[in-house]
Design brief:
The complex is a heterodimer. Chain A is mainly alpha-helical. Chain A has ten helices and no strands. The longest helix of chain A has 21 residues, at 14-34. The two termini of chain A are 30 Å apart. The relative contact order of chain A is 0.14. Chain B is an alpha/beta fold. Chain B folds into two domains: 34-138 and 289-446, FAD/NAD(P)-binding domain, CATH 3.50.50.60; 141-286, FAD/NAD(P)-binding domain. Chain B contains eleven helices and 27 strands. In chain B, β6 (108-112) and β7 (117-120) form a beta hairpin. Chain B is globular, with a radius of gyration of 22 Å. The model of chain B is unreliable at 1-24 (pLDDT under 50). The chains are: A mainly alpha, B alpha/beta. Chain A binds chain B through residues 18, 21-22, 24-26, 28-29, 31-36, 40-45, 71-72, 75-80, 142, 144-145, 148, 151-152, 155, 157-158, and chain B through 51, 54, 345, 348-349, 352-353, 356, 360, 365-366, 368-371, 373, 375, 387, 389, 391, 402, 404-407, 409, 423, 425-426, 429-430, 432-433, 435-444, 447.
Chain lengths: 189, 447
């Protein structure tokens, strides 16, 4: 089957195959910080394999055009063309989301679930695994990373253009937000 | 001495049984498309072996590495200051074995580029179709008068290869009294981890501040006139430790007689052209050059120290089918002042280019356009970090440094005329990202 597929690609779809190779090469450069295949092994770095295409595209372009604050990514994506950004978004969106469930204390989970039910489920789904089409899944995303993102939304020093998220973080207390990211981080599939 | 004896012994053994050794290199795994041997299992070699197997399990990959455990240099300055346990920077090679890499713990002693074999000190021989040379750097102790390899392991650790010397330097710092002086001697570039010496200075200062040694001094004696991420380091030095005369950290550039020419271990003195500096801890980082095996093979033709390679696939310009990656190579826009930094991320990136190129070649496909990236975080205090990123592409067979995709963390948020300090929260988050970066780097290379 693979050989047949290869033959088809070589005869009819040479240019597509070449483009595909190229995006894989480019995508591989993301692995160094975001984990092989976009599944992160470091708590402060987000997994990106399996995030929605629209979300990835939007965020990378906002960084590129200085519409969204970033620490590192803004400097990196400025080196990529818009086409490359679109292709990267499509590439990582085509991968399966792989949660990394993290341990959390029972009381944090209970408090987190309550906060999540109140402000997060509309966009991200009850356990973070059933998000809107352009919202990121949060089930088994790294808690540390999510806490940093919440901090950015709460800080006046960051331009974070997603209004709904900007409002959501103000609707929970700091301890509730902390519990919410623990709750999401603990979810598996 | 020991290894020389072993090597001589090997010569005798090979002379007696040489035919057998050379004629029967390790058999090719049944059905393997090609044999790749990787010499040296640091970030470069491990990443290359791993990605070769990830991209095409039909390739037979052998990794030859001396040590059974690897210690990451990135973030090892936090071990020196006591902020981090060295175990968090260590890994074995089990992950690579599980992916089907044949990991051989031995020393690659001799490469024959014509017969295409690698002989080890342990008396084995491995035939290859393609060879990846990633030996890292050797230290040129002779370049600093009075310095020896033995002194580096006892009194004057460079700790520029993470491991026992890192722990020794940590012990020396611990024992340093208040009012003591910690001297870091920086070699002329290029050297491994360009921001490393300056991150170390900050980590040492932080240790002193937190351990009741407020009168301690960190003196950087530099063989260069500038350094990586300089404005970011200087901002942090000033804010956290005091910088310059009267501050805790002082930097003496080469143009102010900062180059250490000689060291006297007995009196713990560094000698520059005109001055003597006595210290309680002397951290003398010797100049580097490509690992011996690369130099022995004649690959290091740039100043007799570094191995030039082709932009499209990191193949040596000296020998066909031999690729040199990691700190031993020289690449990037050297003429434009933007050479590849000798960093772990850069090594990992080069490794992926080689893996993609070899996989394409073995499968009769055109090699994909390469792309090279780097990122490097420095942590200079509690909740204070920053980074640099690099992007290189290849155009018309030449490396192009892509300025738009490169650069250090912002130094100011204001304009040139009205500078505004970057909020601390940015520095805090970069310190948090540093740990995630390191974990992924380790996993992407060794996992």
């Amino acid at each position: 089957m693979r050989k047949l597929l290869l033959a088809v690609m070589l005869t009819g779809l040479t240019s597509t195959a070449a483009a595909q190779t190229k995006i894989e090469v480019l995508a591989r450069t993301c692995n160094t910080c975001h984990g092989t295949g976009g599944v992160s092994a470091g708590t402060s770095m987000p997994s990106i394999g399996g995030l929605p295409r629209e979300y990835l595209k939007r965020v990378m372009k906002q960084w590129k055009y200085d519409e969204r604050s970033s620490i590192t990514m803004g400097r990196i994506v400025k080196g990529f063309s818009d086409d490359e950004i679109d292709a990267l978004a499509a590439y990582f969106a085509s991968r399966e989301w792989t949660p990394t469930p993290q341990k959390a204390a029972a009381d944090a989970l209970a408090a987190g679930e309550e906060a999540v039910r109140r402000v997060c489920t509309d966009c991200h789904g009850m356990k973070g695994g059933d998000p809107d089409i352009d919202a990121p899944p949060l089930d088994g995303q790294w808690g540390k990373y999510m806490a940093i993102e919440v901090e950015k939304y709460l800080s006046p020093e960051f331009k974070m253009p997603h209004r709904r998220m900007g409002k959501a973080v103000t609707e929970v207390k700091a301890t509730e937000a902390e519990a919410a990211v623990r709750y999401f981080g603990a979810q598996g599939r | 001495m020991h290894s020389i004896l072993r090597r001589d012994l090997l010569k005798v053994v090979s002379a007696a049984a040489g035919v057998a050794i050379l004629r029967v290199p390790q058999a090719r795994a049944a059905g393997a498309k090609a044999r790749v041997v990787v010499v040296g299992g640091g970030f470069a070699g491990a990443s290359c072996a791993r990605y070769l197997r990830l991209l095409d399990p039909g390739i037979d990959v052998t990794l030859i590495e001396r040590e059974r455990r690897y210690t990451s240099c990135p973030l090892s300055n936090e071990v020196v200051s006591g902020e981090r346990a060295i175990a968090t920077l260590q890994t074995g090679y089990g992950g690579l074995s599980e992916r089907g890499v044949r990991v051989v713990f031995d020393e690659a002693a001799r490469i024959d580029p014509v017969a295409k074999t690698v002989a080890t000190a342990g008396g084995k021989s491995f035939g290859y179709d393609f060879l990846v040379v990633s030996p890292g750097v050797d230290f040129d102790y002779g370049a600093v008068k009075g310095l020896t390899a033995e002194l580096a392991e006892t009194r004057l650790p460079h700790a520029w290869k993470a491991g026992p010397q890192t722990l020794l330097l940590r012990k020396q710092l611990d024992a340093m009294p208040d009012g003591g002086r910690f001297i870091i001697s920086v070699p002329k570039g290029p050297f491994r981890c360009p921001p490393g010496p300056y991150e170390r200075a900050a980590q040492v200062a932080m240790h002193c501040l937190h351990h009741g040694k407020k009168k301690a001094k960190v003196l950087i004696l530099d063989s260069n006139d500038s350094f990586s991420k300089k404005p970011l380091f200087e901002e942090a030095y000033k804010a956290l430790y005091g910088y310059g005369p009267g501050g805790m950290i002082e930097w003496v550039p080469a143009s102010s007689d900062g180059k250490v020419e000689e060291v006297d271990a007995k009196s713990m003195t560094c000698l520059t052209t005109f001055e003597n500096f006595t210290g309680d801890v002397l951290n003398i980082i010797p100049p580097h050059r490509a690992g011996k095996i690369a130099r022995d093979l004649g690959l290091a033709t740039v100043n007799g120290a570094w191995c030039p390679v082709r932009p499209e696939n990191m193949e040596s310009t000296v020998h066909k089918d031999i690729h040199v990656i990691g700190d031993a190579c020289v690449g990037g826009d050297v003429a434009g002042g933007n050479a590849f930094p000798k960093s772990a991320h850069m090594a990992n990136s080069q490794a992926k280019v080689v893996a993609a190129s070899l996989v394409a070649k073995v499968n009769g496909q055109p090699a994909p356009d390469p792309i090279y990236t780097n990122s490097c975080y420095s942590v200079v205090g509690h909740e204070w970090g920053f980074s640099v990123v690099h992007l290189f592409r290849v155009d018309s067979g030449q490396w192009v440094y892509v300025k738009q995709g490169s650069g250090i963390s912002p130094v100011s948020f204001g304009t040139k005329d009205a500078p505004k300090p970057v909020p601390r929260i940015y520095r805090k988050m970069e310190a948090e990202y540093a740990d995630g970066w390191l974990r992924n780097l380790m996993a992407d290379a060794f996992g």
